[in-house]
């Protein structure tokens, strides 16, 4: 690992791992984090990843009438975006992989009814343009640096090249919309265009064993291949923060707070679904839409996947350069002019992505009463598929 190898930047760098680091590592098992919500039990990874974001968002939204939770309506789309902003703010303030010397992630409080009720009171009629983490157990949250990305042609950037600036007054541009910058992670762009992506798979067998996995991290596009090893190095370490005091700051022996976030759904103790999606910061956001539409709206799995999608960009991204768009919302045009116009009037900074551009979900289900197995996959991008035998 100490021999320099060529990186995606075109420069040569040595690794930071030593043989004793590899020898000292061993994989293990961890308890999942669960939440009983909307008539089901939703199962996620712990706060070393972003998985509890989905649980926090579901808990926030459970306090509203079912008619208000349809993401295809003006009220539902607005509530989804605002709940996600609060959950993602807590992610950046509190989630991480603490060591023995660190305070634990206050997950029990973050998911508690009292804390959730206090946070739910922040969901107003207008779009928030702030990052608002909570203070569980009276602890002061980590506040990430906020950097906005704007197209500033003629002001220090080449044509089409966005420039990162500290949060402050917006820099005008012709279209009035912020421009996302490449992060090094192969995820869908706001336009829906893709250049490779994270992978996800869900499997269920006749006995009801369900596996949901997002095994991604060694990207050929950005990772050096080590000839002596025969595989790429993982690149998830880029998700650690370099700012001191962050719960996911870079420290020896600590896992980066990954965006990889598969999901299981239980009813009466039996697993009835496994689902997940590529998409970086959007993974739990798109899964939230699916769960609201199936658990509340009565959609079939394929109907829920096919329905118009949206997500917020009003939080620091998990990948460099960690920019955000205050009040940002990316939507599929199929949401319709009525919903999109309502979001804009409420103060959301809307980017239209096209009709079939957002979401990469796949899902498998099993009916415990009949043993019926089903699979559904995303048609966007012609990348996903469902198959049975």
Description of the molecule:
The chain has helices at residues 19-24, 52-61, 74-94, 107-110, 113-120, 283-296, 301-306, 337-345, and strands at 5-6, 12-13, 33-37, 40-44, 147-151, 162-166, 201-204, 210-213, 225-226, 231-232, 263-267, 270-276, 310-312, 323-324, 328-331, 349-352, 362-366, 373-377. With 389 residues, it is of the alpha+beta class. The chain has one domain (30-142, 193-382): Gamma-glutamyltranspeptidase, small (S) subunit (Glutamine Phosphoribosylpyrophosphate, subunit 1, domain 1, 4-Layer Sandwich). Strand 3 and strand 4 form a beta hairpin. It is globular, with a radius of gyration of 21 Å. Mean pLDDT is 86; it is low at 150-188.
Topology, please?
Layout: E1 5-6, E2 12-13, H1 19-24, E3 33-37, E4 40-44, H2 52-61, H3 74-94, H4 107-110, H5 113-120, E5 147-151, E6 162-166, E7 201-204, E8 210-213, E9 225-226, E10 231-232, E11 263-267, E12 270-276, H6 283-296, H7 301-306, E13 310-312, E14 323-324, E15 328-331, H8 337-345, E16 349-352, E17 362-366, E18 373-377
Parallel strand pairs: 5-14, 15-16
Antiparallel strand pairs: 1-2, 3-4, 4-11, 5-6, 7-8, 9-10, 11-12, 12-17, 13-15, 17-18
Helix pairs in contact: 2-3, 2-5, 2-6, 3-8
């Amino acid at each position: 690992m100490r021999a320099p190898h060529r990186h995606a930047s075109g420069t040569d760098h040595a690794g930071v791992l030593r043989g004793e680091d590899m020898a000292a590592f061993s994989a293990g098992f961890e308890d999942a984090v669960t939440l009983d919500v909307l008539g089901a039990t939703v199962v996620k990874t712990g706060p070393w990843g972003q998985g509890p974001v989905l649980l926090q968002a579901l808990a926030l939204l459970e306090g509203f009438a079912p008619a208000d939770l349809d993401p295809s309506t003006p009220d539902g789309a607005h509530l989804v975006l605002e709940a996600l902003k609060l959950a993602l703010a807590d992610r950046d303030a509190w989630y991480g992989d603490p060591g023995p010397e660190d305070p634990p992630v206050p997950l029990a409080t973050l998911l508690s009814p009292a804390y959730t009720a206090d946070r739910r009171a922040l969901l107003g009629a207008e779009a928030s343009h702030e990052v608002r983490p909570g203070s569980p157990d009276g602890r002061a949250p980590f506040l990430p640096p906020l950097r906005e990305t704007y197209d500033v042609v003629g002001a220090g950037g080449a044509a089409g090249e966005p420039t990162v600036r500290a949060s402050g007054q917006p820099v005008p541009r012709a279209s009035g919309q912020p421009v996302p910058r490449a992060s090094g992670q192969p995820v869908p762009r706001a336009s829906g265009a893709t250049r490779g992506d994270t992978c996800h798979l869900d499997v269920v067998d006749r006995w009801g064993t369900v596996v949901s996995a997002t095994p991604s991290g060694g990207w050929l596009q950005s990772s050096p291949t080590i000839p002596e090893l025969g595989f790429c190095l993982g690149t998830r370490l880029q998700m650690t923060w370099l700012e001191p005091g962050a719960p996911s700051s870079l420290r020896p022996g600590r896992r980066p707070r990954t965006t990889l976030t598969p999901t299981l759904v239980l009813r009466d103790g039996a697993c009835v679904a496994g689902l997940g999606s590529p998409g970086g910061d959007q993974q739990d956001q798109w899964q939230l839409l699916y769960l609201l539409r199936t658990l509340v709206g009565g959609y079939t799995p394929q109907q829920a996947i096919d329905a118009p999608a949206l997500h917020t960009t009003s939080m620091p991204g998990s990948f460099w350069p960690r920019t955000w768009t205050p009040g940002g919302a990316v939507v599929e045009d199929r949401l319709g002019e009525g919903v999109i116009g309502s979001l804009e009037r409420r103060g959301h900074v809307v980017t239209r992505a096209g009709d079939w551009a957002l979401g990469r979900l796949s899902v498998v289900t099993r009916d415990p009463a009949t043993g019926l197995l089903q699979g559904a996959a995303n048609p966007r991008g012609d990348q996903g598929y469902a198959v049975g035998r």
